[in-house]
Amino acid sequence: MTPTSNTTRPTSKSHDDSSDRFEESNGVHMNGGANTHGDSGFFTAEGEETTTSEEQDNHSSSTAISYLKLGVTIVGILTGFILCFVVPTAMNDNRQINQTLAIAIWMATLWLTEIIPLVVTALLPLVLFPLFGILDSSDVALQYMNNTIWLLIAGFLLALTLERWACHRRISLKLLTWCGARPPLLLLGMMAATFFLSMFVSNTATTLMMVPNAISVCTILQESSSSQSAKQSTTKQPEDPFAHALLLGIAYAANVGGMSSLIGTAPNLVFHRQLELLFPGAPELTFAHWTAFGLPTGLVLFAIIWIYLCVRYLSWRHDDNETEPIDPTLFQQTYVALGAWTREQITVCTLFVTLCLLWIFRSDIDLGEHVHIPGWANLFPDPSYISDATTGMMIVLVLFVCPARSCHLDISSSNNEGNDTIKDADDDGEDEEVGSTTNTSSHGHGEEEDERLLTNEHDNKNELNDTTLLNWETANKMPYDVVFLLGGGFALAKAFVDSGLSEYLGEQLATLRLEVVGLVFLMITMIIWLTELTSNTSTSNIMIPIAASMAVATQTSPYTFMIPATMACSCAFVLPIATPPNMVVFSTGRLPMAEMNKAGVFLNVIGSALLLGATYTIIPAVMGVAAEEFPEWAQQ
Fold this sequence. Notes:
Layout lengths: L15 H11 L18 H41 L9 H19 L4 H5 L2 H7 L5 H6 L4 H18 L2 H11 L5 H16 L4 H21 L3 H7 L7 H19 L6 H13 L8 H27 L16 H8 L5 H18 L4 E2 L5 E2 L14 H14 L1 E2 L18 E3 L5 E3 L13 H16 L4 E2 L3 H4 L4 H20 L1 H9 L6 H16 L4 H18 L4 H11 L11 H7 L6 H23 L2 H6 L8 H4 L1
Antiparallel strand pairs: 1-2, 3-6, 4-5
Helix pairs in contact: 2-3, 3-20, 7-13, 7-17, 8-9, 8-15, 9-10, 9-12, 10-12, 10-25, 12-14, 12-25, 13-20, 13-23, 13-24, 14-26, 16-17, 20-23, 21-23, 22-23, 22-24, 22-26, 23-24, 24-26
């Protein structure tokens, strides 16, 4: 989830935050390819000239893009003003339709160009909708803190707790120890660990965690290659097909993993809330519902990506030096170096599994005519009062009050606190970190006595529950801008309904002479390529209400348009700016943009076809509404 302490804001197209944090936490050079191995700390004069030339070209390109963004922004703002004050009313003298459409154009333009921060644009509904008389101020404010927002917050806080106690590192390394030493299997292991973690943890944070492991594997492979290849690497980094496959696999698996879970990425939660706003009579969409169709769809796309990367970049032959197997005990040794599981890690993982089970079995599950599993919510007076957000916050409150020992915190994590390392104050008031390889004490203690004193203090600290599994210092690292960004989208969706704009768009779309399947495929393709240039959260905020209008216009199930539109927001594979995981792997300097472009175009097309297939197969089967059926709750 997107959503965490070392998490780049998943809605921004800028990679500065993710790059800086990646450098701080992992020590990986991310300077566009220079010194990516850390083995050459200088450039030749020729290299300096090349770098200067590249910087000038980048500056010119950046300036041109800035002017283009400014021009698009001016056109968008002027178009909104014309719609608002010049163009005749759209329907029944209802000026609010024009005004809502104008505000939507303003917000879409600002989200596209990012002239101002995305979160600032998301706050515009708080001012504009009340001023234009479209929505009451209280109604707008409620959209920024609703049931779906609290579900998102619960997911954020759970992810922060997993990272605080290094549970995510243990999970990923354990998965990698189960893989073989052949490059295709290593690629599968890296992608599988990324896919699983990104279902519950921010896809950006997951990518930031997995990339150092990938670079370590690539370095080992390069060191085991021929002496000629090693000689070439000192002057010019050779093309490394395995590195390309590994980095692309991690980025793509993070995107697809987020798509597979309701809390995995922001667009899924946008759909969850907008379905409630646009179709109040629709049955509740639970975590189990989304997982039932999202996980199989994600796994199929995951398998396609893995096979494609293996065929494109990896040799399946044993005698290929470029894909020589590495030491099969590498990840096992790294995992063992983490030490035994601590009480805190066991507790956090137990609560994590408990939450997943509570989400899945909250509501009744029907597996056929003779198999009915009642939900645990039936044990309470009114099951309809209990939502996935209720369950999530219940576990979060347990995390806040469950005692823990700060000495078991992961000191290498970016979440470390002031008490992450145990220190001993000497008579001069100076601190000595326990575990130092040398004894720096100068106060007459013998070496053995100092070690004994420090060990006793370490043991005493181990017995102290001086913190909790989740404290407010950690919780306060939650990306609040994502919350506001979602709230702005929810407010825009409510205005679409209350102003009559959704009804008007539906009537206009009804004039299109295309079959439903053609409209769905066109919409999926358009959203995938639009997401290459814009934030996927912004795209979902804009396109999901339009998808709902298309469903009403064609008298088709809203699921047929809204669900594939949501999932399409996570299927942008071509450009580094498309998603934060794409940007993170590109910023390592080991992946040329051309490689991402070539691989991504094919996967974008495959993604479009796969989502269309899911729209007419697994989604209707799970939701209980045929693809081209117009349910009663959608007609109200």
